[in-house]
Amino acid sequence: MKIVRLLLLSGIAIVALGWFSQTNAWKKTIALHAPKKEATLPISYKTIEKLEQKATAAKLFAKQKGYNENICFLIDMSLASGQTRFFIYNFKKDTLQAAGLVAHGNCFEYWLEGRKYSNVVGSGCTSLGKYKIGSPYTDKFGYSYKLHGLDSSNNTAFERTVVLHSHSCIPQTEVVEEICQSNGCPTVSPAMLHLLKPIINNSKKPLLLWIYE
Fold it and tell me: 143-157 burial string, b = 16+ CB within 10 Å, else e?
């Protein structure tokens, strides 16, 4: 009888664990605290093709609007958060210079499934569109850059305090799992921000950041 009870309890525990592993609480816990399984996924042809199309449009925008014509930052939010989707694109060489991970906004949900976008103040969501990277400053997340939304889809970014900053929960390399989520800011790893800082700070013209899907 004891063996039967133990088997029943074990079965219940396994079912409960299986259910809990699918919940948002579990996903958030894994994203924030669990060791990450590294992944090396080649950038797909579709992603590269889209990247090149955006880069062409970004280069024209930079020339017309007086932005840095050597380099820009492009973020493809259609990709999984554990994949490389923050791209440093070199206009002069017409090539991808470097890339890394970046978080998307959770819209103030405990854990956001999929994607939601909003330009509403207080939404906590990512806003698609072009941004001018503004002045650096230091806040609770450390060294950060103010962002100015340039499109109707993101023109409240400055008011919303949507900024470019880093957080230790963002891995340096690609991972199998999803990564932590932000409250609307394009958040990168500390190593990635260290790479971005000299590019931004040494630029004599404003730098363009474009978040698209």
Answer: ebbbbbbbeebbebb
Rounded CA-CA distance 80/39 in Å is 12
- What does the alpha-carbon distance between residue 110 and residue 99 come to, in Å, rounded to a whole number? 28
Distance CA 100, CA 98 (A): 7
E strand intervals along 77-184? 86-90, 95-100, 129-139, 142-149, 163-166
How many whole angstroms separate alpha carbon 182 and alpha carbon 201? 24
Task: Report the C-alpha gap between 64 and 129 in whole angstroms.
Answer: 17
Tokens representing 16 are 């409960």
Picking from 108, 89, 120, 122, the residue whose alpha carbon sits closest to that of residue 212 is: 89
Q: pTM (2 decimals)? A: 0.84
Can you tell me which residue has the tokens 């890394």?
100
Sign of CA dihedral 149, 72, 197, 44: positive
Query: Which tens digit of pLDDT belongs to each residue from 189-211?
Result: 999 999 999 999 999 999 999 99
